[in-house]
């Protein structure tokens, strides 16, 4: 009599270590964590991903491809009454308020609950949740190990602005971080610059980072060949076997579907963008994009438009869409007549752009970027020289790494967020990014190969195998596992 296949399959599934993956709710945080979930599932880890209804569509490829090992946990996050005026704090508080009790209930009723929680670094409160459930909490960092090193130092040591609260040009040196990086006060995270004893918002955010530092381990979307000194710095804080550099977390190069479906709506279909690029010469196009959350002020838009016209480069410019096509709060307005003057030489995309596909196209040779870490890794993966225009958050740290330490990028604008660049200088930088003799071109090519090798049996693959091994050990160590694993 043949063995009951469905029951056997179910037993195999329950023998796999079960991980709760919990991203922050913005796409720049969800997408890399889902890319990691895909790699974990392919290594036999059972993953439950906690998302909101708004983001559930991002799970569909994984649900289709891995129906037995990948499952959604969809919990809404309605806004809660909150005295905070900071949208990030409001979102994190709302997630804690609604998700903490919901996850407790789900976990305690599950026949084979997770053996660990892997959650975004904005969700430091999940360390308490994991402790109440009796399981470890592991941090997922969608940012560089360098920038996390800076955040840990900031919130643990609370450096002061020696020049006074109004002196944004005073400097801060992080002597406890490798290479002792120095920043202007305006380059420091805005939430930290707002920090005051007794302020509920900034104290809450400080606790988020202190909980991160006290968690069981951390997974970075980076590779040791890119920032090994900072990965090693983190290993010194978390201990041996508790830090894993598994990036870059990107779709496979031969994947013709998923890179085009990783975002929102767009004014230009991906096929049309690629067709436009097909008509351009190799490495002759500059791609301009500042991420899904940054909108340039109108005077910055005018300066950039003037620079693109003066440079005479071919370009694709992704402009952040606004509600119902209306310009809000003095942001996102293209100068009159710009698109008609640039017709044939430039393509403007409103909304979301298929960035991975654009950067991987042979016609693209330069990338003017805000230096968000996902964008940085996508450019490195494609071997495209970057022009840095950081705006805030971890972007100044990323720009410092790219320009000053790795030499794979050209500094285009380095000023406070609202600064307007000189169009002539920016035009020169745009043209320089396409110069095949620039040393940045050779360096980014070598780094791109290192990134490809890292996830194809190299350092990142080995770290990911090490992470899975740690999950297997946690599974074996559970006294209430209820299944016989291969321990």
Summary tags:
7-stranded parallel sheet; disordered C terminus; 487 residues; globular; disordered N terminus; Rossmann fold; 6-stranded parallel sheet; 2 domains; 18 helices; alpha/beta
Report on this structure:
- This protein is an alpha/beta fold.
- The protein folds into 2 domains: 5-247 and 457-477, Rossmann fold, CATH 3.40.50; 258-451, Rossmann fold, CATH 3.40.50.2000.
- 43% of the residues lie in helices and 14% in strands.
- β6 (171-173) and β7 form a beta hairpin.
- The longest helix is centred in the N-terminal third of the chain and has 23 residues, at 87-109.
- The chain is globular and about 65 Å long.
- The two termini are 30 Å apart.
- The model is unreliable at 1-11 and 481-485 (pLDDT under 50).
Distance between the termini: 30 Å
Strand order of the largest sheet: 3-2-1-4-5-8-9
- Based on secondary structure, the structural category is alpha/beta
As residue ranges, the low-confidence spans are: 1-11, 481-485
Mean pLDDT: 90
Total strands? 15
Second-tier CATH architecture of the largest domain: 3-Layer(aba) Sandwich
Helical proportion, percent range = 40-55%
CATH topology of the largest domain: Rossmann fold
Would you state the CATH class of the largest domain?
Answer: Alpha Beta
């Amino acid at each position: 009599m043949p063995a009951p296949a469905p029951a056997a399959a179910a037993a195999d599934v329950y023998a796999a270590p079960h991980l709760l993956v919990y991203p922050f709710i913005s796409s720049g945080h969800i997408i890399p964590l889902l890319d990691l979930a895909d790699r974990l599932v392919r290594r036999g880890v059972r993953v439950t991903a906690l998302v909101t209804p708004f983001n559930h569509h991002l799970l569909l490829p994984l649900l289709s491809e891995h129906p037995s090992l990948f499952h959604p946990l969809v919990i809404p996050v309605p806004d809660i009454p909150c005295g905070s005026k900071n949208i990030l704090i409001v979102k994190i508080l709302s997630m804690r308020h609604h998700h903490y009790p919901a996850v407790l209930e789900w976990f305690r009723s599950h026949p084979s609950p997770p053996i660990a929680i892997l959650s975004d670094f904005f969700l430091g409160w999940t360390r308490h949740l994991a402790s109440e459930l009796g399981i470890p909490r592991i941090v997922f960092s969608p940012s560089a190990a360098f920038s996390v090193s800076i955040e840990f130092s900031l919130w643990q040591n609370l450096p002061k602005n020696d020049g006074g609260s109004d002196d944004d040009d005073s400097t801060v040196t992080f002597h406890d971080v490798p290479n002792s990086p120095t920043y202007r006060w305006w380059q420091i995270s805005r939430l930290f610059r707002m920090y005051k004893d007794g302020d509920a918002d900034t104290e809450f955010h400080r606790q988020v980072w202190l909980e991160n530092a006290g968690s069981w381990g951390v997974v970075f979307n980076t590779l040791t060949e890119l920032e090994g000194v900072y990965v090693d710095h983190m290993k010194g804080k978390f201990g041996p076997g508790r830090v894993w550099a598994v990036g870059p977390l990107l779709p496979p190069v031969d994947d013709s579907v998923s890179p085009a479906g990783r975002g929102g709506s767009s004014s230009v279909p991906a096929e049309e963008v690629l067709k436009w690029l097909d008509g351009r010469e190799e490495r002759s196009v500059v791609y301009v994009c500042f991420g899904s959350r940054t909108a340039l002020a109108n005077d910055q838009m005018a300066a950039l438009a003037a620079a693109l016209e003066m440079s005479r480069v071919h370009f694709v410019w992704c402009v952040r869409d606004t509600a119902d096509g209306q310009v809000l709060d003095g942001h996102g307005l293209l100068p009159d007549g710009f698109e008609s003057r640039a017709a044939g030489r430039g393509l403007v995309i409103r909304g979301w752009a298929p960035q991975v596909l654009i950067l991987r196209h042979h016609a693209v040779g330069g990338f003017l970027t805000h230096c968000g870490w996902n964008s940085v890794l996508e450019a490195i993966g494609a071997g495209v020289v970057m022009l840095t225009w950081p705006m805030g958050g971890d972007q100044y740290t990323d720009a410092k790494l790219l320009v000053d330490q790795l030499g794979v990028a050209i500094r285009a604008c380095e000023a406070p967020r609202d600064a307007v660049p000189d169009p002539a200088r920016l035009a020169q930088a745009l043209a320089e990014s396409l110069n095949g003799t620039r040393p940045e071109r050779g360096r980014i090519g070598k780094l791109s190969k290192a990134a490809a090798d890292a996830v194809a049996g190299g350092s990142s693959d080995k770290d990911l195998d090490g992470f899975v091994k740690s999950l297997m050990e946690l599974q074996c160590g559970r006294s209430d596992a209820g299944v016989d694993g291969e321990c």
